[in-house]
Amino acid sequence: MTPFALARVLALAGQRAEALSRAVKHSHGVWLRARGRLVQLNALRDAHVAQLAGQLREGVPAAQLQAVQRLQRAQADERTAAQAAIDVAWHDWQARLAEWMQAAQRLKALQLLEQRHQARLAVQRRRIEQREHDELAELRHRRESGRRGA
């Protein structure tokens, strides 16, 4: 019986699919952390806006108002950068996911080939066993008929 010719390829494909799976999970985590950072920045902005609203009711000197505006612009820039990081992380995640899906499909195809190979081997084994059984039965039949004729 011949061994599965693509056994090494199947093993390597399995290892590659596993490595890509880990990379997909990692890139998904990066994307989630980037989203979490944006949520934190938005919460910080909302807190500053609420604080500023209270201060404006009481009256704020112009210099302090300008400092607050600079802070708000800096926060807006940071939120823009955070959104860009989210977009980059999402695209990286999607690219890794597509690559993993291709590797998984290749692995499934190789596994199917291996299953078919195993099925062919099983059929061959059954045929050999049946042939051996038939030969043994024929040999017994000849011996028995030879004893009766003598």
Write up what this structure looks like:
The mean pLDDT is 94. It contains two helices and no strands. By secondary structure, it is an all-alpha fold. It is rod-shaped. It has a single domain (8-149), classed as Helix Hairpins (Orthogonal Bundle). Helices cover 93% and strands 0% of the residues.
Write the layout of secondary structure elements.
Elements: H1 7-58, H2 62-149
Helix pairs in contact: 1-2
Descriptive keywords:
150 residues, mainly alpha, Helix Hairpins, 2 helices, rod-shaped
User: Unreliable runs, pLDDT <50, ≥5 residues?
Assistant: none
How much beta, percentage-wise?
under 5%
Question: Which fold name is given in CATH as the topology?
Answer: Helix Hairpins
Query: What's the CATH class, please?
Result: Mainly Alpha
Mean pLDDT: 94
Categorize the overall geometry. Answer: rod-shaped
Task: Supply the CATH architecture.
Answer: Orthogonal Bundle
The main pleated sheet reads as: none
Our count of helices gives 2
Order of helices and strands: HH
Estimated radius of gyration? 36 Å
How helix-rich are the residues, as a percent range? over 70%
Span between N and C termini?
Answer: 42 Å
Structural classification = mainly alpha
Total beta strands: 0
Number of structurally distinct domains: 1
